[in-house]
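Much of our argument rests on the idea that a fold can be written as discrete symbols. The record that follows shows the chain in one-letter code together with its fold in token form.
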Amino acid sequence: MLEKADGILASSTADKVEVLNKFFTSIFTQTEDLKDYDTNSESNIFLNDVDICQEDVLNKLNKLKTDKSVGPDGLHPKVLYEVRHAICYPLFLIFNKSIKEGKVPDDWIVSPIFKKGKKRKPGNYRPVSLTSV
């Protein structure tokens, strides 16, 4: 169980998710370039104006840090770098489909990881999401 801001314990999964979401968003630090955007708007925001081209994907692949560890996909950045020209087009298609459909892989979902202290306190958890390079 997790303790809500009012001290009442949240027992259902949906209530726990809401408690952690409120806490994590309350401690989120916005970077300067995002401060001009209305992040509290309840309107639906779509990424229809975002265009990713093959050149963008290749530029990012060219800048991979090949000395980093593997991600949850099990692929080493060195491998991705070496095959960057072959995977550029498929990645371009995947990224654009993800944007168009508004879907991301389940592996990108944030999970709360307990740090220490009382487990019912939301502040004793940290948000973690393992992503690939």
